[in-house]
Amino acid sequence: MQNKQDASAFVICDDLYKIFKVADIEVMALQGLDLTVGRGELVGIVGASGSGKTTLMNVLGGLTLPSAGQVIVDGANLLKLSTGELTTYRQVDVGFVWQQGSRNLIPYLSALDNIKLPMTLAGRTGREADARARELMEKVDLPHRCEHKPIQLSGGEQQRVAIAVALANAPKLLLADEPTGELDSATSDQVYELLKRLNSDDGLTICIVSHDPAIAQHVQRVVQIRDGKLASETVRRRPRLESSAPSVPRLTGDVSQNEGGTPNDDNWEDHFEELIVLDSAGRLQIPKQYREELGFENRVEMEVTEGGILIRPAQNLEQTSSQAEIQIEREIRGEESGAPAGLLARLKRRTDDG
């Protein structure tokens, strides 16, 4: 598979399946999902409820194992780790930030003690743990809140402390599941800015699950999951200047230039482009609104053209395979009006003649 050959890949999900059994019903949460996340990348993961995005986060975090496929994080195949190695992975190599504050923080511990707790579980105590906890409170801009308990903190402060807890053991991967789901827009922006700073300053690989449609403004790439598979990517493209006329931008929008003729980043408008994902088996998902608008049903025609591949609604759908099967069945039974004896009769006659 192509993404396995990418040396910069930090997370590789290859043909990932996850099946949950509820009573006598099997629910397929992931259906052959392929995903690659580069080292030091900040990625947003979006999708409707039930699309499989939270299941994906749990698989990446080692909280649940896939039913099939493989998941590799920093060269380690999580399916091949022993129970002890998987516990160490969850404690040290990956950090979690959840939407609900009750999952992130122990209510009767101070912010500082909440940060020390995962270090204590990993065997780090004393002055080293205390110094690390205070360093992280500085990093999340809350050094004055060290002795406060969660109930004494605002929602935004609780999430920043939760991020500090997730970073306690210096993980290589940070997973955030709806970290701004219960915050207002201004506080959400503060949390996103903190995550961006951790990504740029520390090179931390971060995956954020979100329903927030504005997440593309805060991450490098957004991947959309639909029906347990990767459906599309939204990538950020920075406008480039024409080589022949460096003062004129290629893309339209409100753009300002500084005296040197280069874009002013404060006023430079990004361009976001959604790309349909082609998986390792050559499958792609055509968005529902396109299918409805173009009249696509369960079959389409494809044609190779000079500019690429043309996909259009199939013609003469009455000649589909299901109709062909009906025709064969009629032939066998000899039921079609005006037709000679059925196939079975003809085969019997040939056998008798032989």
Features:
354 residues; alpha/beta; Rossmann fold; 2 domains; 7-stranded mixed sheet; 4-stranded antiparallel sheet; 10 helices; elongated; disordered N terminus
Describe this structure in words.
The chain has 354 residues and is of the alpha/beta class. It folds into two domains: 2-271, Rossmann fold, CATH 3.40.50.300; 318-353, no CATH class. The chain is built from ten helices and 13 strands. The strands form three sheets. A seven-stranded mixed β-sheet has the order 6-7-8-3-9-10-11. Strands 2-1-4-5 form a four-stranded antiparallel β-sheet, with helices on one face. α4 (111-121) packs across α5. The longest helix has 18 residues, at 185-202. Residues 1-5 and 241-268 have low confidence and may be disordered.
